[in-house]
Amino acid sequence: MVAVAASTGGPAALQHILGDLPGDFPVPVVVVQHIARGFTEGLTDWLGASSPLKVKLAEHRERLAPHTVYVAPDDRQLGVGEGDRLEVLDAPPVEGFRPSASYLFESTARRFGAAVAAVILTGMGRD
User: Is 7 an annotated catalytic residue?
Assistant: First the structure.
């Protein structure tokens, strides 16, 4: 799987990257984008219109699927747990951030180890 974190400048970078991936990209992509509350749904729709992949807001306990990009919802931590299922939680902020890239990266590293590619496009805090 691919885990991506972005902050300022992230939406345009995500649009470019996701738009260049093939529609049959074989692994799921999970995205944490630091953005003002209320803009995540619009970001997800915009990215979906720019990419051949399915782009959607992540849902709790949803199973990861290839060809799909999962975006962290507003003010929720996003991680991956057992059974390759997403965890969308009201967990505390990490160093002031929710969603947090650190939270996502730690959960994907625990679940997938070396089989995950983690990408920081633009970071905040200690990301």
Answer: yes
Nearest alpha carbon to residue 5 among 127, 97, 89: 127
Amino acid at 124: M
Amino acid of residue 45: D
If you write DSSP's letter for every residue of 61-127 in order, what string do you get?
TPBP-TTEEEEPPTT-EEEEEGGGEEEEE-PPPBTTBSS-HHHHHHHHHHHHGGG-EEEESS--TT-
Mean of the per-residue pLDDT values of the chain: 94
The per-residue pLDDT for 122 is 76
Is pLDDT at 126 greater than 90 in this prediction?
A: no
Given the residues 51, 100, 102, 127, the one annotated as active site: 127
Active-site option among 16, 34, 84, 107: 34
Provide CB contacts within 8 A for 44, sequence distance 6+.
55, 56, 57, 71
Has 60 been annotated as catalytic?
Answer: no
Contacts of 103 (CB under 8 A, 6+ apart): 32, 77, 78, 79, 91, 94
